[in-house]
Specification:
7% helix, single chain, mainly beta, 6-stranded antiparallel beta sheet, 337 residues, globular
Amino acid sequence: MEVGDDKLGQFSAYEGTYQGEKAIWLTAGAYEAAILPEIGGNLIAFRDVEKGYRFLHEPTEEEMPSFKARPIIHGIPVLFPPNRYEDGKFPWNGKTYQFPVNEAERGNHIHGFVSDTPWEVEEFGRTDTGSYVTVALTVNEEHAVYAHLPHLFTLRLRYTLSADGLSQHVFVRNNGKDAMPCLLAFHTSVNAPFAADGSAKDYRVKLTIGQRWEMSERMLPTGKHQPLTADELQLQGEGVYPFFEEMDNHYTAVAQNGRNRMELTDTKLDITLVYDVGTSYKQWMIWNNFATEGFFCPEPQINLVNAPNIDLPAEEAGLFSLAPGEIWEEAARFYVK
C-alpha cells in the first residue's frame, strides 16, 4: 500500500487558473500540463519543469486578449472543420452550408467553430500511472455551432500525463439522424527552441510528409502536386532547420515504420520531442509564422483543405462521414527521446 501511495504522490489533477482563466492542471513527476476548457478545450501548456522545457507555444500575459479573440497559434487548438473553405461554401449531401467568410482578404472561411467555444469538463483525476482530464463539446439544436454546422454530435478530448509524456485521445460521435462530415485537425503550436536557454539554430525538424499540394493565391489546393525542394526533402528525411523559409505548406501524410509523426531535435542537448499523431490524419499543414524563430505549427489534418469543393476522390481528399450513431476516434502522443 505504501508503494501505491508513493506512486499516487507523483501525479495530481486539480482545478486552478492559467493567466486568470479557468484551467485544469495535470502533473506527473517532472511534467505538468494545463487545459483551458472554456477556450476551446485548448491544451495550452506541456512542460518539463525540472529541465525548464516548454514544449508548446504559450501566450504571455500581454498576449492573452489577442489569444482569447483568436486562439489559434498557442497550445493545441481544435479545428472542426479545419482550415479553409472557398467563399465559405461547404457542399454536403445535396445541400450547401454557408460558413462565415472570416478570412476576408482571400474570401474564405477558416478554422471552423470550436476553437473558441466553451467545452465541459467531464472529469479529471489521477491513477497509479498518471493524471488525466476529459473535456467534451456536445452540439444540439440550441448550440451556437449548430447554426453553421447543422448536425448533432459530441467531440470529446482526453489528455493523460505520465512518465511516458502527454497522450491525447479524440472522440467524435454522430448523435443525429443523418450522416455528418467528420473533418478535424489540430493547429498544434510547438516551441523551437523549447529549452529555456536554447537557440532555434540548433533545432532540426522531421515530418512524415509525402507530396506537396499546389496552392492557389487564395491558399486553396488546385488538386495538383509540386516537386519537393531540397529543404523539403530534408524535412522528409534527416531533418531541417524549422525556419529555413516561410512555410504555409500543405502536404500528404505518409507513415514511416507504421507511424505518422513530427520529430523536433535540439542538436546541442541531443534531445528529441516526438509528436506521434496517428495514421488517421492523411494530411499535414506546416506554418512557421513567416519564418520567425520561436514556434511553428505542425498541423495534422484528416482532410485536404477545401475538400468538399475539390474534384478528387473522397478517399484522397480525406472527406468522410459518420453515419447516425457512428464513432470516430484517434490517439496521439508527445514524448521525449
